[in-house]
Protein backbone atom coordinates (compact mmCIF):
# COMPACT_ATOMS: atom_id res chain seq x y z
CA UNK A 1 0.00 0.00 0.00
CA UNK A 2 1.22 3.50 -0.81
CA UNK A 3 2.03 5.76 2.10
CA UNK A 4 -1.22 7.19 3.47
CA UNK A 5 -1.46 10.07 5.92
CA UNK A 6 -4.63 11.08 7.75
CA UNK A 7 -5.22 14.82 8.21
CA UNK A 8 -7.81 16.36 10.52
CA UNK A 9 -8.56 19.94 9.50
CA UNK A 10 -9.42 22.22 12.44
CA UNK A 11 -9.41 25.86 13.52
CA UNK A 12 -10.92 27.98 16.26
CA UNK A 13 -12.17 30.77 13.99
CA UNK A 14 -15.47 29.34 12.75
CA UNK A 15 -17.80 32.13 11.62
CA UNK A 16 -21.03 30.49 12.77
CA UNK A 17 -19.79 28.81 15.97
CA UNK A 18 -16.35 30.06 17.09
CA UNK A 19 -14.34 27.60 19.16
CA UNK A 20 -16.62 24.68 18.25
CA UNK A 21 -13.74 22.22 17.86
CA UNK A 22 -13.10 22.41 21.60
CA UNK A 23 -16.75 22.37 22.64
CA UNK A 24 -17.43 19.57 25.16
CA UNK A 25 -18.79 16.41 23.58
CA UNK A 26 -18.95 13.01 25.32
CA UNK A 27 -16.85 14.38 28.21
CA UNK A 28 -13.98 15.52 25.99
CA UNK A 29 -13.34 18.31 23.46
CA UNK A 30 -14.96 17.57 20.10
CA UNK A 31 -11.48 17.50 18.54
CA UNK A 32 -10.49 14.84 21.07
CA UNK A 33 -13.54 12.74 20.30
CA UNK A 34 -13.00 12.69 16.55
CA UNK A 35 -9.28 11.97 16.99
CA UNK A 36 -10.17 8.99 19.16
CA UNK A 37 -12.84 7.74 16.77
CA UNK A 38 -10.46 7.90 13.80
CA UNK A 39 -7.34 6.64 15.58
CA UNK A 40 -7.58 2.99 14.50
CA UNK A 41 -8.01 3.73 10.77
CA UNK A 42 -5.50 2.11 8.45
CA UNK A 43 -3.30 5.14 7.84
CA UNK A 44 0.38 5.55 8.67
CA UNK A 45 -0.17 8.44 11.07
CA UNK A 46 -2.61 11.24 11.87
CA UNK A 47 -1.86 14.94 11.52
CA UNK A 48 -3.72 18.03 12.64
CA UNK A 49 -3.78 20.87 10.09
CA UNK A 50 -4.54 24.19 11.72
CA UNK A 51 -3.77 27.87 11.15
CA UNK A 52 -1.05 30.27 12.24
CA UNK A 53 -3.64 32.59 13.76
CA UNK A 54 -2.92 33.18 17.48
CA UNK A 55 -6.35 31.78 18.33
CA UNK A 56 -5.07 28.39 17.17
CA UNK A 57 -2.25 28.26 19.72
CA UNK A 58 -4.70 26.27 21.83
CA UNK A 59 -5.60 24.07 18.83
CA UNK A 60 -1.93 23.21 18.41
CA UNK A 61 -1.61 22.43 22.11
CA UNK A 62 -4.58 20.08 21.99
CA UNK A 63 -3.20 18.41 18.87
CA UNK A 64 0.04 17.55 20.63
CA UNK A 65 -1.86 16.44 23.74
CA UNK A 66 -3.89 14.04 21.58
CA UNK A 67 -0.76 12.51 20.06
CA UNK A 68 -1.21 14.08 16.62
CA UNK A 69 1.52 15.60 14.52
CA UNK A 70 0.66 19.26 13.99
CA UNK A 71 1.12 21.60 11.05
CA UNK A 72 0.19 25.27 11.18
CA UNK A 73 -0.30 27.16 7.94
CA UNK A 74 -2.19 29.88 6.13
CA UNK A 75 -5.35 30.95 8.02
CA UNK A 76 -7.71 30.63 5.03
CA UNK A 77 -5.85 28.81 2.23
CA UNK A 78 -6.38 25.38 3.74
CA UNK A 79 -5.22 23.60 0.58
CA UNK A 80 -1.69 24.89 1.19
CA UNK A 81 -1.64 23.15 4.59
CA UNK A 82 -2.42 19.80 2.98
CA UNK A 83 0.18 20.32 0.27
CA UNK A 84 2.81 21.15 2.92
CA UNK A 85 1.97 18.05 4.98
CA UNK A 86 2.19 15.92 1.83
CA UNK A 87 5.62 17.37 1.04
CA UNK A 88 6.90 16.88 4.58
CA UNK A 89 5.71 13.28 4.90
CA UNK A 90 6.27 12.15 1.31
CA UNK A 91 2.94 10.30 1.46
CA UNK A 92 1.30 9.39 -1.83
CA UNK A 93 -2.23 9.73 -0.42
CA UNK A 94 -3.91 11.93 2.17
CA UNK A 95 -7.18 11.29 3.99
CA UNK A 96 -9.06 14.54 4.66
CA UNK A 97 -11.34 14.72 7.69
CA UNK A 98 -12.74 17.82 9.36
CA UNK A 99 -12.97 18.28 13.12
CA UNK A 100 -16.55 19.52 12.96
CA UNK A 101 -17.78 16.08 11.86
CA UNK A 102 -17.58 14.15 15.16
CA UNK A 103 -19.64 11.18 13.95
CA UNK A 104 -16.79 10.10 11.64
CA UNK A 105 -14.99 6.89 12.52
CA UNK A 106 -12.22 4.58 11.37
CA UNK A 107 -14.41 2.21 9.26
CA UNK A 108 -15.46 5.02 6.91
CA UNK A 109 -11.77 5.75 6.25
CA UNK A 110 -10.96 2.07 5.78
CA UNK A 111 -13.70 1.71 3.16
CA UNK A 112 -11.89 4.23 0.95
CA UNK A 113 -8.47 2.70 1.58
CA UNK A 114 -9.81 -0.76 0.72
CA UNK A 115 -11.50 0.57 -2.43
CA UNK A 116 -8.29 2.23 -3.56
CA UNK A 117 -6.29 -0.95 -3.11
CA UNK A 118 -8.92 -3.13 -4.80
CA UNK A 119 -8.77 -1.75 -8.36
CA UNK A 120 -6.36 -0.13 -10.75
CA UNK A 121 -9.01 2.39 -11.74
CA UNK A 122 -9.29 3.59 -8.16
CA UNK A 123 -5.53 3.78 -7.79
CA UNK A 124 -5.40 6.15 -10.77
CA UNK A 125 -8.07 8.46 -9.38
CA UNK A 126 -7.29 11.88 -7.92
CA UNK A 127 -10.01 11.75 -5.29
CA UNK A 128 -12.08 8.95 -3.76
CA UNK A 129 -15.29 9.53 -1.82
CA UNK A 130 -18.20 7.42 -0.58
CA UNK A 131 -21.34 7.86 -2.65
CA UNK A 132 -24.94 7.00 -1.99
CA UNK A 133 -27.39 6.62 -4.85
CA UNK A 134 -25.07 4.60 -7.08
CA UNK A 135 -26.82 1.78 -8.92
CA UNK A 136 -25.08 -1.53 -8.34
CA UNK A 137 -26.10 -5.09 -9.10
CA UNK A 138 -27.64 -7.03 -6.23
CA UNK A 139 -29.42 -10.37 -5.93
CA UNK A 140 -32.69 -8.59 -6.62
CA UNK A 141 -31.29 -6.57 -9.52
CA UNK A 142 -29.96 -3.00 -9.77
CA UNK A 143 -30.10 -1.37 -6.33
CA UNK A 144 -29.18 2.17 -5.25
CA UNK A 145 -26.54 2.43 -2.56
CA UNK A 146 -27.63 4.10 0.70
CA UNK A 147 -27.16 7.86 1.10
CA UNK A 148 -25.45 8.97 4.30
CA UNK A 149 -26.10 11.88 6.68
CA UNK A 150 -24.39 15.17 5.85
CA UNK A 151 -21.06 15.16 7.67
CA UNK A 152 -20.49 11.41 7.66
CA UNK A 153 -17.79 11.04 5.05
CA UNK A 154 -14.11 11.61 4.36
CA UNK A 155 -11.99 11.97 1.24
CA UNK A 156 -8.91 10.10 0.04
CA UNK A 157 -6.80 12.27 -2.26
CA UNK A 158 -3.60 11.78 -4.23
CA UNK A 159 -0.82 14.09 -3.10
CA UNK A 160 0.25 14.94 -6.64
CA UNK A 161 -3.35 15.85 -7.50
CA UNK A 162 -3.46 18.29 -4.58
CA UNK A 163 -0.18 19.79 -5.75
CA UNK A 164 -1.59 20.16 -9.27
CA UNK A 165 -4.67 21.91 -7.89
CA UNK A 166 -2.45 24.22 -5.84
CA UNK A 167 -0.65 25.24 -9.06
CA UNK A 168 -3.67 25.50 -11.33
CA UNK A 169 -6.26 27.36 -9.22
CA UNK A 170 -6.60 30.90 -10.57
CA UNK A 171 -6.66 34.08 -8.43
CA UNK A 172 -10.38 34.61 -9.09
CA UNK A 173 -11.23 31.17 -7.58
CA UNK A 174 -10.03 31.58 -3.97
CA UNK A 175 -12.83 29.38 -2.62
CA UNK A 176 -11.05 26.35 -4.09
CA UNK A 177 -8.09 27.03 -1.79
CA UNK A 178 -10.44 27.21 1.20
CA UNK A 179 -12.30 23.98 0.43
CA UNK A 180 -9.18 21.93 -0.44
CA UNK A 181 -10.70 19.42 -2.88
CA UNK A 182 -13.43 21.38 -4.69
CA UNK A 183 -11.15 22.12 -7.65
CA UNK A 184 -10.44 18.40 -8.02
CA UNK A 185 -14.16 17.66 -7.92
CA UNK A 186 -14.63 19.95 -10.92
CA UNK A 187 -11.44 19.16 -12.83
CA UNK A 188 -9.93 15.90 -11.58
CA UNK A 189 -10.57 12.18 -11.80
CA UNK A 190 -13.10 11.35 -9.08
CA UNK A 191 -13.77 7.73 -8.13
CA UNK A 192 -17.13 7.10 -6.47
CA UNK A 193 -16.99 4.33 -3.87
CA UNK A 194 -20.41 2.76 -3.23
CA UNK A 195 -21.72 2.79 0.33
CA UNK A 196 -22.39 -0.70 1.73
CA UNK A 197 -25.86 -1.91 0.83
CA UNK A 198 -26.57 -3.02 4.40
CA UNK A 199 -26.05 0.49 5.77
CA UNK A 200 -29.17 2.54 6.59
CA UNK A 201 -30.21 5.24 4.14
CA UNK A 202 -30.41 8.57 6.03
CA UNK A 203 -29.75 11.50 3.66
CA UNK A 204 -32.15 13.75 5.58
CA UNK A 205 -30.02 13.70 8.75
CA UNK A 206 -27.35 16.31 9.45
CA UNK A 207 -24.23 15.13 11.35
CA UNK A 208 -21.99 18.16 10.84
CA UNK A 209 -21.45 20.74 13.60
CA UNK A 210 -21.57 24.27 12.21
CA UNK A 211 -24.16 25.96 14.43
CA UNK A 212 -25.40 25.82 18.02
CA UNK A 213 -28.33 23.64 16.88
CA UNK A 214 -25.87 21.18 15.33
CA UNK A 215 -23.85 21.08 18.55
CA UNK A 216 -26.98 20.52 20.65
CA UNK A 217 -27.94 17.61 18.40
CA UNK A 218 -24.47 16.06 18.62
CA UNK A 219 -24.38 16.41 22.41
CA UNK A 220 -27.76 14.70 22.71
CA UNK A 221 -26.71 11.94 20.31
CA UNK A 222 -23.44 11.13 22.03
CA UNK A 223 -25.10 11.28 25.43
CA UNK A 224 -27.44 8.60 24.06
CA UNK A 225 -24.45 6.54 22.86
CA UNK A 226 -22.99 6.63 26.39
CA UNK A 227 -19.86 4.52 26.94
CA UNK A 228 -19.81 3.62 23.23
CA UNK A 229 -19.19 7.23 22.18
CA UNK A 230 -15.63 6.62 20.99
CA UNK A 231 -16.27 3.34 19.17
CA UNK A 232 -19.89 3.11 17.99
CA UNK A 233 -20.24 2.55 14.25
CA UNK A 234 -22.60 3.94 11.64
CA UNK A 235 -25.35 1.32 11.69
CA UNK A 236 -25.50 1.28 15.49
CA UNK A 237 -25.61 5.08 15.66
CA UNK A 238 -28.58 5.08 13.33
CA UNK A 239 -30.21 2.31 15.34
CA UNK A 240 -29.83 4.28 18.58
CA UNK A 241 -31.14 7.51 17.04
CA UNK A 242 -34.01 5.96 15.11
CA UNK A 243 -36.31 6.03 18.10
CA UNK A 244 -35.39 9.60 19.01
CA UNK A 245 -36.71 11.96 16.34
CA UNK A 246 -36.54 14.75 18.93
CA UNK A 247 -32.74 14.50 18.56
CA UNK A 248 -32.41 14.05 14.80
CA UNK A 249 -34.77 16.95 14.08
CA UNK A 250 -32.93 19.42 16.34
CA UNK A 251 -30.81 20.79 13.48
CA UNK A 252 -32.87 19.93 10.40
CA UNK A 253 -33.66 23.59 9.79
CA UNK A 254 -29.96 24.49 9.47
CA UNK A 255 -29.03 25.55 5.93
CA UNK A 256 -25.67 24.32 4.67
CA UNK A 257 -23.27 27.09 3.66
CA UNK A 258 -22.64 27.48 -0.05
CA UNK A 259 -19.24 26.52 -1.39
CA UNK A 260 -18.18 30.09 -2.09
CA UNK A 261 -18.97 31.18 1.48
CA UNK A 262 -15.85 29.53 2.91
Approximate strand percentage: 15-25%
Query: Which overall shape is indicated by the principal axes computed on the Cα atoms?
Result: globular
DSSP E strands, number: 11
Query: How can the largest sheet be summarized?
Result: 7 strands, mixed
How many individual helices?
A: 11
* Topology as a string of helices (H) and strands (E): EEEHEHEHEHHEEEEHHHEHHH
Helix and strand layout, with pairings?
Elements: E1 4-9, E2 24-25, E3 28-29, H1 30-38, E4 45-51, H2 57-65, E5 69-73, H3 78-89, E6 93-98, H4 106-118, H5 120-123, E7 127-131, E8 135-138, E9 141-144, E10 155-158, H6 159-168, H7 175-178, H8 182-187, E11 190-194, H9 212-225, H10 234-242, H11 245-248
Parallel strand pairs: 1-4, 1-6, 4-5, 7-11
Antiparallel strand pairs: 2-3, 6-10, 7-10, 8-9
Protein model, in words:
The protein has 262 residues and is an alpha/beta fold. The protein has a single domain, classed as Spore Coat Polysaccharide Biosynthesis Protein SpsA, Chain A (Alpha-Beta Complex), CATH 3.90.550. The chain has helices spanning 30-38, 57-65, 78-89, 106-118, 120-123, 159-168, 175-178, 182-187, 212-225, 234-242, 245-248; strands spanning 4-9, 24-25, 28-29, 45-51, 69-73, 93-98, 127-131, 135-138, 141-144, 155-158, 190-194. A 7-stranded mixed sheet has the order 5-4-1-6-10-7-11, sandwiched between helices. Strands 2-3 form a two-stranded antiparallel sheet. Strand 8 and strand 9 (141-144) form a beta hairpin. Helix 3 crosses helix 6 (159-168). The chain is globular. The relative contact order is 0.16.
Amino acid sequence: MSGTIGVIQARMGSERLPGKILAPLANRPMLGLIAERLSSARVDEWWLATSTDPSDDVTEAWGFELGLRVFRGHPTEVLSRFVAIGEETGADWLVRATADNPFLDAPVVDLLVDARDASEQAKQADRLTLHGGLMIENESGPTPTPALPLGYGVELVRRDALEAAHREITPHEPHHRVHVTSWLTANGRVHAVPTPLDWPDRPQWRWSVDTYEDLAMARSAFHLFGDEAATIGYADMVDHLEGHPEITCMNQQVVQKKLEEG
